[in-house]
């Protein structure tokens, strides 16, 4: 697993120590905005993450409390990943990256971007409530 070594007291540097990796951000994106929740689901993302990198980033996210894994009720050898409250707290950050990227890319804006443009706070609240419901926690604290 990628070792995290904090190089300074700067909050941005601290955040980048965990979130400065594109694969981490794409896994978080998939957990927030899609129904992807398993190793196989993440492997099938358009970006084509390598198996060793995926395993490493899932372990990193879990060990540092951004996600949790549970055994699938259908298949005992399959893990289902979900965001913890710490991971859910990243929704506004991921949303801002998505909005910024959609402003400068040449692709047609996705439906979620259109929703965010109309009502960013309401959409973030809906995403947060949906994901908190998946964690079994209704208390946003």
Automatic annotation (TrEMBL):
SUPFAM superfamilies: Winged helix' DNA-binding domain
UniProt KW keywords: DNA-binding, Transcription, Transcription regulation
PROSITE patterns the UniProt entry points to: HTH_HXLR
Domain HTH hxlR-type: 10-109
GO molecular function annotations of the record: DNA binding
InterPro entries: HTH_HxlR, WH-like_DNA-bd_sf, WH_DNA-bd_sf
Transmembrane segments: none
Domain of life: Bacteria
Protein name from the UniProt record: Helix-turn-helix transcriptional regulator
Organism encoding this protein: Chitinophaga agri
């Amino acid at each position: 697993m990628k070792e995290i070594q904090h190089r300074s007291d700067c909050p941005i540097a601290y955040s980048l120590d965990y979130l400065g990796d594109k694969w981490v951000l794409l896994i978080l994106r998939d957990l927030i905005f899609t129904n992807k929740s398993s190793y196989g689901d993440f492997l099938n993302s358009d970006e084509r993450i390598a198996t060793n990198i995926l395993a490493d980033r899932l372990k990193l996210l879990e060990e540092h409390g951004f996600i949790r894994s549970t055994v699938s009720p259908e298949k005992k050898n399959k893990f289902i990943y979900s965001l913890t409250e710490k991971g859910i707290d990243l929704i506004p950050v991921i949303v801002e990256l998505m909005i910024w990227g959609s402003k400068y890319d040449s692709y047609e804006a996705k439906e979620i971007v259109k929703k965010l443009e109309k009502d960013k706070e309401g959409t973030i609240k809906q995403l947060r409530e949906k994901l908190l419901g998946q964690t079994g926690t209704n208390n946003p604290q």
